[in-house]
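Postdoc handover notes: sequence design on the structure in folder B. Input tokens:
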């Protein structure tokens, strides 16, 4: 099974694109969110996770009590060292080192067993989900780069295929602030650049992952064309994905976005009216050259 991923930062339409991909009869795509341990989240099937048949099956079959130290039902990052917080910082530092492209071999050798364990957890989860939904492919969403890299250490069919979604950094700033408050543009722009820069890095050696970059704006404007490109890239049969999902869909996440998805894609363009022109210019300046590469200027 060739690993397949959807990569994008928050507020880039990951939830609706996941629902769209999950509409394919051969595909399981469960979005980017795993059930949290601290509260009983709602599943898109209409039940809380604690009484959702699918997530209960995952809990039992994968014996998720093993990962009790993790904030989620399954670990999001490779478990390398220390508490959740320290492990996160170690992961981030390793990710930075790996993305320079010079340390892949020593890092892989040093953490081989950790990466293998991470890859095994992911693959067991994919197989369980595919068997539950009777599908042939699993597309994982917004996984940290180190988790994807770990997945490749176990696969004989690497590298992974990555569908990469971009969004206008001005729209990203607007959505980011709407949800998280009045955060400085330089922090938000740095976040956008860091994420998309790392995906651009994956396109080049020594990684050379096959990546399909699509603008979310284009996907909303012409979904048929976008879907055609995605299906051809993932080598999937031609199907109509722009339909309202059935009840047997088990995504956790933004319930507003999940309930609203009726087979159509919408994009919030109110930033064009709301953001002052000088702020828009500043954002474009701070996110170049990538903003220009993705034709946002
Ligand atoms: Zn469910």
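Designed sequence:
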């Amino acid at each position: 099974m060739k690993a397949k991923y959807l990569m994008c930062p928050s507020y880039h339409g990951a939830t609706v694109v996941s629902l769209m991909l999950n509409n394919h009869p051969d595909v399981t795509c469960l979005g980017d969110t795993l059930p949290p341990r601290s509260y009983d989240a709602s599943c898109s099937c209409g039940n809380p996770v604690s009484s959702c048949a699918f997530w209960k099956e995952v809990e039992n079959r994968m014996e998720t009590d093993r990962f009790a130290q993790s904030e989620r039902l399954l670990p999001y990052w490779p478990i390398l060292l220390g508490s959740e917080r320290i492990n996160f910082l170690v992961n981030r530092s390793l990710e930075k080192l790996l993305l320079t492209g010079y340390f892949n071999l020593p890092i892989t050798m040093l953490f081989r067993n950790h990466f293998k364990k991470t890859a095994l957890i992911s693959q067991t989860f994919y197989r369980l989900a595919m068997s539950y939904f009777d599908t042939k492919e699993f597309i994982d969403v917004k996984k940290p780069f180190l988790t994807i890299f770990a997945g490749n250490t176990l696969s004989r069919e690497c590298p992974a295929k990555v569908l990469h979604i971009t969004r206008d950094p001005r729209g990203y700033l607007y959505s980011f602030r709407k949800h998280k408050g009045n955060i400085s543009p330089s922090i938000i722009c740095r976040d956008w650049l860091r994420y998309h820069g790392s995906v651009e890095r994956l396109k080049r050696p020594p990684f050379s992952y096959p990546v399909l970059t699509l603008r979310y704006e284009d996907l909303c404007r012409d979904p048929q064309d976008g879907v055609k490109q995605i299906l051809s890239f993932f080598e999937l049969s031609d199907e109509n994905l722009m339909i309202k999902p059935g009840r047997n869909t088990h995504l956790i996440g933004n319930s507003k976005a999940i309930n609203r998805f009726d087979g159509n894609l919408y994009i919030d363009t109110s930033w064009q009216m709301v953001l002052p022109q000088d702020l828009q210019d500043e954002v474009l300046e701070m996110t170049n050259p990538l903003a220009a590469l993705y034709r946002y200027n």
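Context for whoever picks this up: The first helix runs from residue 14 to 22. Don't rerun without checking with the PI first.
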